[in-house]
Amino acid sequence: MLEVSTILWISVVMQCLAVILALRLIPETGRALAWILISIAFLLMATRRALSLLQQEGYLQNSWLVAFSTEIVALIISIFIVVGVYMIRRIFEQQKNDASQLKKLSLAIEQNPGITIILDTEGKIEYVNPAFTRTTGHELEAVLGKGPDILKPEYTDELTLKRLWETIKAGGIWRGVVRNQTKDGGLSWERACISPVVSKNEEITHYVAVLEDITKEKEQTEAFEYMAMHDALTNLPNRTLFFNRLEQAISIAKREEKTLAVMLMDLDDFKEINDSLGHHVGDRVLREVGVRLGEVIRSGDTVARMGGDEFLVLLPFTNEQQCITFMNRIIQVLKKPFALESLSVEIGASIGLAIYPEDGDNADLLLQHADVAMYTAKNSAESYSRYKKSLGDGILNRLELASDFRAAIEDNQFLLHYQPMVNVKTGMADKVEVLIRWLHPERGLLYPDAFISLAEQTGYMCKTTTWVINNAFQQLSKWKKSGLDLDMSINISVVDLFDLGLPKLIKRNSQYFNIEPSRITLEITESVLMMYTQKSLDVLTTLRNIGVSISIDDFGTGYSSLQHLKELPVAELKIDKSFVMDMIKDENDAVIVRSTIDLAHNLGLSVVAEGIESQEIFDILEVLGCDYGQGFHIAKPMQAKQLVTWLESSSEFCKRRRA
Length: 659
Ligand code: C2E
Ligand code: CA
Ligand code: CA
What we know:
alpha/beta, Beta-Lactamase, Alpha-Beta Plaits, eight-stranded mixed barrel, 26 helices, 21 strands, rod-shaped, disordered C terminus, binds ligand C2E, binds calcium ion
């Protein structure tokens, strides 16, 4: 009896303990339940065994307790055991699944090409995947327990980092771009998504950072942005970037009540270099100019290439006096000769200056006014000029003027003036130089210096020259019919020298109007001729062969050597007016005039002096043996009708001269 009850109680106590343990220690409800079921089954088995022992011993009278020891109980036990075993099996399967799921996940993270970093709440690294090592060069072991400082986050701006930590510490997800440093010191860009890992009781346990290396993408975007903002030839900022910087500088100057300066610089005679020595030489000059300009600016100043041979300079916080010093320095550095092919060439420049706020209070206006000032400088003896309000009114805005060219040719807005050239020995005005003017519908009468270089730049030069030649021949023919036989000098531009159609144009006009080509002299400026090419030499030779004379205009301002003069089919030298005008005051000028006359005669060339503004000069030139003279003292350029009147009274001039 004792034995049975002991077994029973021990069994009951053991099973109860098992149930309690199962419930307390095994956290998962399913697992606990399975244990409970099996424990109950064991309890039932033990109870049944005890009851059956009691029954055998005859202690058990109670009928329901007898029934308990029967087969029904055995059945219930079996059911409990089956269900319990089934549940335990399910639990083991679940655990297996979980383990394989975990393995899959860890493999996925390991093999993910994106960088994964797991940080604890202190920001210390707990895990990095191999992509991290591949990108940053840091091994897992070396970074464990370290902070993200190892990636030098200081390359990302401070504000971004501050927002990042604020967001994730508050439980949010931060997305953005960070810049890190790799182990070998290189910089990389990463697109990052950093999120907190939150436990069941809503506490942040970790942070997971998933980073995608976008260095290549970023470098490409940066390269595109750079290209959009810089000039490919000189690597200088382009007009767009200059404009942006100018606008920024203006807003700072406005706030701080300071001044700033904008300069627009155009190289002199660059087109000639480009046309005669080729674009590769032109490109070298532009690059070298960019470098030299870069050497004279301070940090904070901007030099940009506007396009063509035009450069822009922005000097913040400056005044007129400092600008003048600066412009002189530019002129000086450009004066250092440029070694081009076998030539050594000095480059001149014309600079226009506009100062904020006096000359304009916005970027557009300042640039426009610097342009007007530059154009004024180009047309004066000075290398630079500051914008004055009066300039803007009369002097053109080149951009507007360019679009007017087409109308000028189509609507016959050009007209020709003629300036007599006097044979110094005979006193006869038997030759005229034809000079173009433009009667602009809004701007009034424009002189060639205001639009010829523009015609060259905008591609209208050849059409303009054709107009001049056609109309000049027509005028010669009219005079010829009225009994006036004159020779004529026509100015042509460097662009025309590359036009193989020019000799044909002269030939056609000469046949049509019945004017001998030998009555025509074409004037080409010396700066153009010093750098002739085979093509321009061919054009000149063809012209000479059909009987046209070639004259070197503005002689003394260029660089032609004796060799050039011998090689070229030239018939005449025309001494530049700057020497002639000042030859009384300036001994150097007098020497140049004298030696040019001698040189021309020694080479068998005729010589013309232009810019004769007084009788005294005319007389000296006569003594020196100059062949032809031209200048305001003799007559100013005038219209065809006035010329006839002047010629009729020109004996007046000759008489005065002889008196
Ligand atoms: P250029 O060929 O040297 O022409 C002489 C310029 O000097 C003319 O100016 C004339 O008015 C001016 N001049 C004449 N005598 C005197 C004088 O005694 N003193 C002073 N101070 N000036 C004098 P313009 O008509 O304004 O022409 C300027 C330049 O424009 C010309 O210089 C020439 O290079 C160019 N040009 C004129 N017409 C044409 C043309 O039809 N085609 C081309 N391509 N260029 C032209
Ligand atoms: Ca001329
Ligand atoms: Ca001239």
